Amino acid sequence: ELHGAGVLVDEGEPFRHMYIIRSGEVNVSRGGKTAAVLSRGDFIGELHDVDINIPSPYRFSHSGDVSLFALSREDMVDFTRQNPGLVMKFKLGYLLEGAHTK
């Protein structure tokens, strides 16, 4: 639970967690311009971004209360060890999605 205004990930800062929004809204901006507003069920970051510390091209901030699930790299490593089949489905889906956009 985060209250009031704050920044989850700043532009150029590496992702240290992947977030899933439970409630509230998160503003996505780049160069001071709003690109999107995320809400319940939306993800911030990807497993790959957190795993190799990719810098964020966007700023993720909130102006009001927001509730999030936060997954660290260690959480994701544990999850992949416990659920290898599910992780393979995610990877396959990601690869197939990329094949359709080329």
What's the short version?
This protein is an alpha+beta fold and 102 residues long.
H and E string: EEEEEHEEHH
CATH architecture of the domain at 6-74: Sandwich
Largest sheet, in brief, is: 4 strands, antiparallel
Spatial strand sequence of the major β-sheet: 1-6-3-4
**Within the CATH hierarchy, at the fold level, what is the topology of the domain at 6-74?**
Jelly Rolls
Integer-rounded radius of gyration:
15 Å
Give the N-to-C terminal Cα separation.
39 Å
Give the low-pLDDT segments. none
Strand content: 25-35%
What does this structure look like?
The chain is an alpha+beta fold and 102 residues long. It has a domain at 6-74: Jelly Rolls (Sandwich), CATH 2.60.120.10. It has 3 helices and 7 strands; from the N terminus they run βββββαββαα. The chain has helices spanning 47-51, 73-82, 84-101, and strands at 6-9, 17-23, 26-30, 33-38, 43-44, 59-62, 67-72. A 4-stranded antiparallel β-sheet has the order 1-6-3-4, with no helix packed on it. Strands 5-2-7 form a 3-stranded antiparallel β-sheet. The chain is globular, with a radius of gyration of 15 Å.
Q: Which key features would you list for this structure?
A:
102 residues, alpha+beta, Jelly Rolls, four-stranded antiparallel beta sheet, three-stranded antiparallel beta sheet
Topology:
Layout: E1 6-9, E2 17-23, E3 26-30, E4 33-38, E5 43-44, H1 47-51, E6 59-62, E7 67-72, H2 73-82, H3 84-101
Antiparallel strand pairs: 1-6, 2-5, 2-7, 3-4, 3-6
